[in-house]
Amino acid sequence: MHDTKLTLFTLASGRSGTSYLAGFFAKNIERCYTTHEPYLTPGNPTLFGKPIEWNTRGDDVALMPVLARKCRFIAQCREPFYLESNHAFLKAFNRHAGTLLRNPGFIHLVRHPLLVAKSEHVREQMIRKLRLPFVDYTGDTGERRFRWALTGQEALFRHFPTAITRLQFYLLQWLEIEYRALRLIRDHAWRNRVFFIDVDVDLKREAVLKDMAHFFELPHQTPFDLNLRRNRTPWIGPTVITAQDRLEFRAMLRGLPEDYRTMLRNKPYCDCSWFIEVNRLMAD
Prior knowledge:
Distance between the termini: 44 Å
Order of helices and strands: EHEHHEHHEHEEHHEHHHHH
Low-confidence stretches: none
Shape: globular
Largest sheet: 5 strands, parallel
Strand content: 5-15%
CATH class: Alpha Beta
Radius of gyration: 18 Å
Number of helices: 13
Number of strands: 7
């Protein structure tokens, strides 16, 4: 796998352990350029904001120069390994990864969809309550959009003709991200380049992290330093799933296209710690 620089990206939604994983790499993996969401790195686009919209609209005239700039940055890094633990990857880069990435590897982080959606919803509410600047951008057709989310114009969202709640928006986003992850792997026969982690039970297990390092043949320190920062939402406690949240999830699952329902019933999701609960909601 290491005939040229090994370039690792996460296949993940937000609030799925991407920050924790980047912290693990930074402290434990040697000879690896590690970044999470490269906001302050000249020449390395974050891919949030307009690149997400351009990818959704298929506007490659605007998108391709941004992706090419990122690839140049990666190529110019001196280290033989590169990790970007960034949930923008599947939102903006998925359609062109097969042609632009020379020697890719992927860490597929999957967390309980309701925990992801509720956490993303709460994080957005907090950001808006604090009135932080630059959280929205104006799309090319004039709409205001949340910088870190899909546009809501993707085909899966258009499948739902009636209004959806913001929690349901994030549930649909989780589903779309997972659908893109599996399609990327399938279309490019990259199954042997993907290491899967059930975030809810395995992300912080030393044995699993060691298996991941061995899978990608990554040099690492021994023992691991697992004193890592968690990316908690400030002033908010643990994510709590309510009965209303489950009702909204069940209502959305009933309207899913069959290929998304089939996806949830199969690997890797049928092996996840939350599969029985979600499958029961889908069957009701």
